[in-house]
Specification:
CATH class: Mainly Alpha
Protein name: Polar amino acid transport system permease protein
GO cellular component, one term: ATP-binding cassette (ABC) transporter complex
Organism: Polynucleobacter victoriensis
Family: Belongs to the binding-protein-dependent transport system permease family. HisMQ subfamily.
Helix content: over 70%
Structural class: mainly alpha
Radius of gyration: 21 Å
Strand content: under 5%
Distance between the termini: 55 Å
InterPro entries: AA_ABC_transptr_permease_3TM (IPR010065), ArtM/GltK/GlnP/TcyL/YhdX-like (IPR043429), MetI-like (IPR000515), MetI-like_sf (IPR035906)
């Protein structure tokens, strides 16, 4: 299994690169969580459109990105698009691919929460003269987001964990640096256990923050 002193020595030598990779992971996970939520809200809003064609297209979008494995989407963009003359950086591919994927899931969560709302609120707002956009912004959206906090939290956790696949398209995030560490000394168990503990710590932080937010904004029964 190799000696711990040699592992710690290699770890200390590569620590600047590993920390840089960790920052890249946190940056990517944070940005795709924000962009995925914002786009997900737009997609969710369009699912409420009175236009049947728009609803059909949006539902097809949700089904497509939920049904397609994320790694396939990233490979299509990174390795497939250059054959059509479109070359994107690993970060750009990861950001765009993750955003479209995450938005589809978030829209589905929001739509599920919407289906559980008391629709008499919307009817009352319509009777008061609110237009569809005002009803969405002031009545529908705040409630569905609050109801979806647990699901959205799970999605953020998934974003953090799924970001590890970005190393397969040459994005130098945390797991890519751990791979390099493991390849240096062939102490794969120690390197991957280190990665697991770091991911566990980050997930624990997200859970604690989410629980505080949920307690703060919970909708009373």
């Amino acid at each position: 299994m190799g000696s711990w002193p040699s592992f710690w020595r290699d770890l200390s030598e590569q620590m600047p690169l590993i920390l840089a990779g960790l920052l890249n992971t946190i940056e990517l996970a944070g940005l795709i969580s924000i962009s995925g939520l914002l786009l997900g809200i737009v997609v969710f809003y369009l699912t409420l459109s009175s236009n049947r064609f728009i609803r059909y297209v949006i539902n097809a979008y949700i089904s497509f990105f939920i049904g397609m494995p994320l790694i396939v989407l990233l490979f299509l963009m990174y390795y497939g698009l250059p054959q059509w003359g479109v070359r994107l950086s690993p970060y750009t591919v990861a950001f765009i691919g993750f955003t479209f994927n995450v938005a589809a899931y978030n829209a589905a969560y929001l739509k599920t929460a919407y289906n559980g709302l008391d629709k008499t609120q919307i009817e009352a707002a319509t009777a008061q003269g609110f237009n569809s956009w005002q009803i969405f912004i002031f009545i529908t959206l705040p409630q569905v987001i609050r109801l979806s906090i647990p699901a959205l939290t799970n999605q953020v956790i998934g974003n953090l964990k799924d970001s590890s696949v970005a190393f397969l398209i040459q994005y130098t995030e945390f797991f890519a640096r751990v791979q390099e560490l493991a390849a240096t000394n062939f102490q794969f168990f120690k390197a991957y256990m280190l990665a697991a503990l770091v991911y566990l710590a980050l997930v624990s932080i997200i859970v604690l923050v989410a629980r505080a937010v949920e307690r703060r904004y919970v909708i009373p029964a």
